[in-house]
Specification:
Length: 210
C-alpha cells in the first residue's frame, strides 16, 4: 500500500494524514472486494523493516492497525474473517506492542465464524524472514525439505497461492511480500497512490486473472 506519504505531501499534509486516509481506504476497498466476490485479500500493513521509521510515524501506523482491527461491526456485517500474518509475537526480536497484539487476537476471534472473504493483514511481516522460519520449522520436525514441507511451515499455511499482486504508487519492483506464495502471481503495477486505489483500480488488477 505505497504512496500514503506522497499522497499527503502533495496536499501539504503530514505523512500521518496519508496513513490515516490509507486506513480509511482499506475499509472502502474491503467493501468493494466483498462485492467482487474475492475470496482472499491480503494487505501489507507494516513490514519487519518499517520499525526504523520515525517514532511518531510508527506509533501512528500502529494506532491505525488497532483502529482497523477494531472495525468489528463492519467486518461482521460483511461476513469477513480476519487473519494476521507476521513474525510470531514471542519471537526473540519481535516488537509488536501488547495493545496491537490484543486488537489482532480480538479481531481474529470475533470474526472466526464468518464464512465470506478472508482479510489477512501482514503486520511485522517479512517474506524472507517467513521463509527462514519455515525452513527452521522443517528442520526441527526432521522433514525432508520438499516444497510441500516448506508450505506446511509458513506462518499461515492455509493462505492460498497469490493470483494477483498489486503494487501502488509507481513502485515497479517486488517487495519482501509473500515471496513463496507469489511464485505464480500476475503483477499489476499502478501509479495510483494507495489512498486513491478504488474499485476501478481493483478491476484493472482483476482483469489480469479473469
Ligand atoms: C507505504 O507508504 C505504507 C506503509 C508503510 C504503511 C501502510 C499503512 C496503511 C495503509 C495504514 C494502516 C494500515 C493498516 C493495515 C491498518 P509510504 O509510507 O512509504 O508512503 P510513500 O511511499 O509515499 O513514502
Amino acid at each position: 500500500m505505497d504512496g500514503n506519504g506522497r499522497w499527503a505531501a502533495a496536499r501539504g499534509l503530514p505523512r500521518t494524514a496519508g496513513h490515516s486516509e490509507g486506513e480509511e481506504n482499506i475499509a472502502r476497498l474491503v467493501r468493494v472486494a466483498v462485492r467482487r466476490d474475492i475470496g482472499w485479500l491480503t494487505l501489507f500493513g507494516f513490514s519487519t523493516e518499517n520499525w526504523v521509521r520515525p517514532r511518531t510515524e510508527v506509533r501512528h501506523i500502529l494506532g491505525l492497525h488497532e483502529k482497523l482491527f477494531g472495525r468489528l461491526a463492519e467486518l461482521n456485517e460483511l461476513g469477513v474473517r480476519v487473519q494476521w500474518i507476521g513474525r510470531p509475537f514471542d519471537a526473540p526480536d519481535a516488537r509488536t506492542p501488547r495493545y496491537v497484539q490484543r486488537a489482532i487476537r480480538k479481531a481474529i476471534a470475533a470474526t472466526s465464524h464468518n464464512t465470506g472473504m478472508v482479510l489477512t493483514i501482514a503486520f511485522d511481516y517479512g517474506g524472507r524472514r517467513e521463509l527462514c522460519d519455515a525452513v527452521a520449522g522443517v528442520r526441527a520436525r526432521g522433514l525432508p525439505m520438499t516444497p510441500e514441507d516448506i508450505s506446511s511451515q509458513l506462518y499461515l499455511p492455509e493462505l492460498p497461492p497469490v493470483d494477483v499482486l498489486v503494487r501502488t504508487s509507481g513502485e515497479r519492483r517486488v517487495s519482501n511480500f509473500l515471496l513463496w506464495q507469489s511464485a505464480g502471481a500476475a503483477i499489476r503495477f499502478t501509479d495510483c497512490p494507495w489512498p486513491e486505489f478504488d474499485e476501478h483500480e481493483l478491476d484493472r488488477a482483476l482483469e489480469l486473472v479473469t
